[in-house]
Amino acid sequence: MDSLLGGPSGANRPVFRFEGHDDVTACAIPAEQLALSGPSERLDAPHWPVRGDLAHIRLAGRVFVPHYAVPMERRVVAAGASLLAAGRGDAELREVLAGGTVFNVLDMAGGWAWGQVGEDGFVGYLPLDALEP
Question: Residue 124: which of 106, 110, 111 has the closest Cα?
Fold first, then answer.
């Protein structure tokens, strides 16, 4: 429980320190009560870090999914990498990323990382070995 922050939380829940994030306020964790009201907004899927089971924490209150994640900032290896639309080698190419590009990882599974290029770039999958440790 060393990762818990002390003090009251805006939404009456614990706030955690995440690897690489000393300032949790930069993660835009909503402090107000969240509610579903009205129709959901239409999303530009290639640029919005949301899928059926998971979304970026900054989208809490805007999209409804079972889980929200605080991104882990990683950099693409020097050789660069191909950002794909799905977690498989034959998926549609979204963008070719240069070495050193910031990639905000939201999920890692099956040898793939799902996330977003920077804060507002394309969303997609990279092989885990395409990211610096």
Answer: 106
